Every structure is written in structure tokens, then in C-alpha cells.
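Give me the fold.
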Amino acid sequence: MDQITRILDRLLALHPKEIDLSLGRMHRLLDALGSPEKRLPPVIHIAGTNGKGSVTATLRAILEASGKRCHVYTSPHLVSFNERIRLGTDGKYVSDLVLFDALQRCEEANGGEEITFFEITTAAALLLFAEHPADVVLLEVGLGGRLDATNVINEPLVSVITPVSMDHEKFLGDDLTVIAAEKAGIIKPGVPVVSAEQDPDVLKVIERQAARNKTRVDVFGQDFVSQLDQGRMTFQDEDGLLDLPQPVLGGSHQFANAALAMAALKATGLLPDEDVISTGLKSVNWPGRLQPLTHGPLVDMCPEGSEVWLDGGHNPGAGISIAQFMGEQEERAPRPLYLIAGMLTTKDPTGFFRPFDGLVRHVGTVPIATTNTARSPEELADLARCAGLEATPFPSLDAAIADVAACAADDGEAPRILICGSLYLAGEALARNNMAPD
């Protein structure tokens, strides 16, 4: 066991709960560290249910194309914890040596007090961001917003809210407007807000919170739009129209994510000219989100000619977007679609699976080895059946792929395979396929 794994295991044991939303412990530790949150480069703060990572990746790509250096904080990781922290000094994931030093200093400053894993590791990220030069910090909320550990930033450049839908009900509530209020908790006095298109009730909550903080909200579909036009993406707002390349990330929802990123940069005065935006959009990279797998050990196990996709989306909103994309692929080139799914106990599998009804030949459910909060394959198969899908539990990802191969041999058709339902499963698949993010 390496030193990073050992210290992360110690930090995980500092609180009896994995999630305990509060800001008190965070402020205590940051004070002990000399308040690094007050010494950061300008911050763009991103909350929401779906699309946070894609919007953050697009922001980074456009900013870096314009010559800006970006610190980036996202969660969870796919394969290595280092993926959560990208330093703008070299544009790479934090090194083991630098990460270990920051975690050790946070552990010492915390003095054995109760603090959640996400809180103390977020403090380590903020410490690194304060000590390394960059032009912008892209700070993604972990869960919710109001009481999330990232919400210690008093004056971000802009508050970004991606689509809000049901997720993490155990921690945020089971009412969409209650969840929206938690997300809107990142809104700060006088700081502009940029929002995705939202459920009308959600938008009312966001607009009320913005009004309380005496700031404006720019909303996708009202103040800015994007759409496909003759193989290109157009972005339009009150100042005119931009003609841009299509997003490289898969799915029609990425048009809205790209537009949200551009609107956020425009609100901060950081949006570059059309040519630079185009360069940035062509370089967006966000693994585990409708990612095609074209080679590797895992792909080699699939039937010859298979089309293999990977996505870590895990809630009903993500299910709708992914199913829509798979429907588009079916129209493009019909193939039998097989899902291989693993999900956590905190998610709504039936809501995730329901949009796939009529699209999917079969669902193979699998365990997830990298977390102790995964549903059993048997339970997940039952919930997939509740959504109207045929499902069979398997003991492993390899066993599920072998079953698809057997079915494909009987059918005589090369299948389309989607590995989905959890970022943890996506990470396992990437590791198994020798494709860990770098």
C-alpha cells in the first residue's frame, strides 16, 4: 500500500459518516491552515445535478486555449484520486509528492478532530490552489451547494448552475424545489449567475435566491441559446451569433453544456474570440461520459465488430440524456443494444433505466468492487425489471461481457454495448481497459 493510499484511508476514518453536510468543520480547518480560501485566484463555482463535469471541462478547454492557467477541482475520480485536483502551473493532475504533502499538512492541522473525507480533501485542494500560481480556479461542487465543502468562497467570478434534477435525496431532500434551494446556495451577493434550462419551479427558486443577493440570472433558452445548424454549433445571445464546431463530447445535451460554459465566461469577461473558442471546443476531454472504447483488453473480450460505450451518469436526468444518445445511434446504425450496469444504493435505478424501455435488448447487472455502497447485482436486476427491461445479474463485468458475446453469437449481429450506471463502474472499466485518465 503506497503512502497516498495510507493517508487517504486515515482521512476516511476521521468521521463516522461519508457525508455530513456542514460548513463548521471546514471553516475550523481552513482557519488552522491560514485561510487558503481567501488567497485563491479568481473562482468559477459550478453546482447542479447533471453536467457539472462536462461544463467544467469545457471551461478549462476554452480558457487554456486563450492562454489562461486553470486550477481544477472535480469529484469523484475515476481511477486515481489525483484526478480530482489539476494544477494550473503545468495543467496536469497533482503529483503524488505534492498531494501527499498537502494531505499531510491538512491532517496535522486538523488534529484528529471529526471531519468528513470530502471536507479535508477539499481543504487540501484549496491549500494547493492558494500556493500555486494560476489565472482561474474551476471549483466543482461535490454535493448540493449551500453546505458543500466548496461553498467557503465568498466572491466567485460567477456562479454556474447546471440542470437540477432528483439525486442524493437522502441528503438533499425528496422535493425538487428543496434540492434546487440547496444548489442555489452557492449564489453570492452581486455575483452573476448563469443557469441551464431548468424545470419552471427550479428556476423560480434560483431567481428568488439571486434576487435576495441583488444579482442577475442568465438562463439558457431565454438569454442565450445553442443549436445544431448544418453540422456546426451556433451560440447566440443579445450580442449576436457565433459559428462554432460541434462539441466533441457525445450527446445532444453537450450543446447546452458548451453554451453554459461560454455564457459563464462571457459573464466574467473571460470569453475569447470565436477562433479561440473553436480551438478550445475541439480539445475538450472528459473521460467516462459517453466515451467510445475502441481498443484495449476489455474491448478485446467483446464480439468482433462491437460498438462499446462508457458513461458514468447515474440518475434519472442522466438516463434521459444517455438514452436519447443511444436512440440517435440506433437511427444512425441499427444494432442490438446491451446495457452492463452497476449502481450505488443512494441512486434511483428504476428512474435511470426507465428511459431505455424499448431501446435495450438486455441488461446485465454487475457488482462494483471499488465502493461498499453498491447495490447487489440481484437487487439491481430486479429494479431494472421494474422499469420494463429484461435483466440478469452477473458476478463480474467480465461475466456480463461474456454473456453479451454468447447472445451476439446466437443472433449473428455485432452488438452495441453500454457500460453505465456509476462513475465507480466507469473507473473500473477504464482501469480494466488500461485507459486510466492521464
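Residues 141 and 150 are 6 Å apart (CA to CA).
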